[in-house]
Design a protein that fits this description.
This protein has seven helices and ten strands. It is of the alpha/beta class. The strands form two sheets. The chain has a six-stranded mixed β-sheet, sandwiched between helices.
Length: 238
Amino acid sequence: MMAPAPSEPVLLISSVRKQYQSLRPLRLNHLAIARGERVALSGLDAGAAEVLVNLVTGASVPDEGEVRVGGLSTASIVDGDQWLTSLDRFGIVSPRALLLDAATLLQNLAMPLSLAIDPMPADVAERARALGREAGIDDRSFDQPAAALSVLVKARAHLVRAIALNPLLLILEHPTANLEGADRASFGASVAAVAESRRLTTLIISEDADFSAAAATRRVVVHPASGELRVKRRLRWF
């Protein structure tokens, strides 16, 4: 896939409407995310968030409007092979993603890098460790089975897997759904640090104010009925 021109948004959503199993369709009038920007979007429940992720990745297309990623309209993806290739542009952190509980954390982190995880080549192991450290994972966790990990370490593991192949767009879909208390802001700070160092363009879909404040460079809320975006401060819809 060709990289977008420097002046072109990495993600551009225009006049989108998508019907799904809800009382009203998903509406999003205009959202543009520039290269390296981290935008937190609130106002979407779990169902609407999943629909939006599918629209951005091209798994579905809008009933109306257009979604462009890297300058390419998702509607221009014409077959399954092209769509599978296009998925390399995305790194996704989602509560729907799973780790292999019986595998070690290091094996889980290495999966985007290699199918050879048992035994694991030394260079793959070192790359996986480096990625884990970048996301704030302590070395003592690498040899633990995923089932024994804390919720925060699991969240960091999903972040590692999302960034492992240097995506064009990092997407976080309600990433703190299972986190509590101070872990939310801590994970947000890790996301910010990783994305800043890699200049990763990032879309965050979250209702978690503490996480979004730590992770994002811009926060907006979508009005569910009109699809308009407003700057997220102490904003309530009436």
